[in-house]
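Incident log, support desk, overnight shift.

02:14 A customer reports that sequence design results differ from what the structure should imply. Their input is reproduced verbatim below. On-call engineer (initials T.W.) acknowledged and began investigating.
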């Protein structure tokens, strides 16, 4: 990629969403580049906690055109997923530009997109933001009031128990990350999980028949086909998930109870340097792991992309801003949109929309538009 280079399409994000999108763009013969801030393809997975495994079995963890190299009913590790993504990009010769952080996305006076990166500027007619909703760690403001002797980590920085001090730990947030990390930490210390009950899927991820039911019904039918923006039930669940978060998938509340994890109300403040719960209890802990979610991390987009509630303005990934698209966002089209087996369908749909717009002869060609943009810069 050269400074001021022009492309038909720029894809921002080189994870599973960006690579799946690139696969379909290549099929349609579009000139594109995939920009990713990481040093290596798959690093977003490599940097997660050591014991993490995918929720979905390998048979559902493949991107379009390439099976996942593992027994179909096994649950890949995060490093296996990272290596698969790297191999996928190599196999299909996808044009991924690593070590390239996008710093600003805007439009020029002639309607071209200007993508400003750590490696220079790029012009394009269309942009696909292929990033998950989970970018910047989110921690409550009162975190700074905790005693400085308490070790604090966000889930995004957690790797293994050796990062913590000896003694009790409080995980703030009772979603999937909090539950999974709590199960690991409960083996070596008193473990508390604070937060409201988020519910759980009605099948346990264990045993052959449970996996069959789960993969063939829950993931493929419920999450992929029933819970979509096209169905009343899907729209209702989407609203709940976007405001409250999704259910527990692998770890269940009964698992937490059996492991001795103490489930308590959400943390609301700090008193005397210690965590205070909603019921007024003060916990004496040596460690706090914040499993409190993420910010979308899209502040670099200098375009009107959000509504009054701060939500992205799009229709199943096609943004209100013409020429802009999203893939990989939570419940973009269905509950499966952030899952490996769901992102491919979204990527294919967005690639079709991009190709249709690229073929519109009423739009200026990318090269003359680029020349005009350079002249006015």
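02:41 Re-run completed on a clean worker. Output:
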């Amino acid at each position: 990629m050269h400074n001021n280079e022009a492309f038909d399409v720029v894809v921002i994000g080189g994870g599973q969403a960006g690579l799946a999108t690139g696969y379909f763009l290549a099929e349609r013969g579009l000139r594109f580049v995939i920009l990713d801030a990481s040093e290596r393809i798959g690093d977003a997975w490599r940097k997660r906690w050591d014991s993490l495994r995918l929720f979905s079995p390998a048979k559902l963890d493949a991107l379009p055109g390439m099976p996942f190299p593992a027994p179909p009913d096994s649950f890949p590790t995060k490093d296996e997923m990272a290596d698969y993504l790297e191999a996928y990009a190599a196999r299909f010769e996808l044009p991924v530009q690593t070590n390239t952080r996008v710093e600003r996305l805007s439009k020029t006076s002639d309607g071209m997109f200007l993508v400003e990166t750590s490696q220079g500027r790029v012009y394009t007619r269309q942009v696909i933001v292929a990033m998950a909703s989970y970018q910047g760690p989110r921690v409550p403001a009162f975190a700074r009031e905790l005693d400085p002797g308490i070790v604090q980590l966000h889930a995004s920085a957690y790797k293994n128990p050796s990062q913590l001090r000896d003694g009790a730990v409080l995980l703030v947030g009772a979603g999937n990350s909090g539950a999974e990390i709590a199960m690991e930490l409960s083996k070596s210390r008193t473990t508390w999980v604070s937060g409201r009950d988020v519910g759980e899927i009605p099948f346990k991820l264990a045993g052959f028949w449970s996996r069959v039911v789960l993969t063939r019904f829950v993931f493929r039918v419920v999450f992929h086909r029933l819970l979509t923006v096209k169905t009343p039930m899907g729209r209702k669940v989407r609203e709940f998930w976007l405001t409250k978060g999704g259910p527990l998938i692998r770890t269940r509340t009964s698992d937490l109870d059996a492991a001795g994890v103490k489930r308590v109300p959400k943390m609301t403040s700090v008193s005397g340097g210690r965590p205070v719960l909603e019921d007024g209890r003060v916990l004496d802990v040596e460690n706090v792991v914040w499993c409190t979610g993420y910010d979308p991390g899209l502040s670099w987009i200098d375009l009107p992309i959000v509504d009054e509630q701060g939500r992205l303005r799009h229709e199943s990934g096609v943004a209100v801003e013409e020429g802009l698209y999203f893939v990989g966002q939570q419940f973009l089209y269905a509950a499966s949109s952030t899952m490996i087996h769901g992102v491919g369908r979204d990527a294919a749909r967005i690639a079709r929309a991009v190709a249709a717009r690229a073929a519109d002869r009423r739009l200026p060609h990318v090269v003359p538009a680029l020349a005009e943009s350079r002249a006015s810069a």
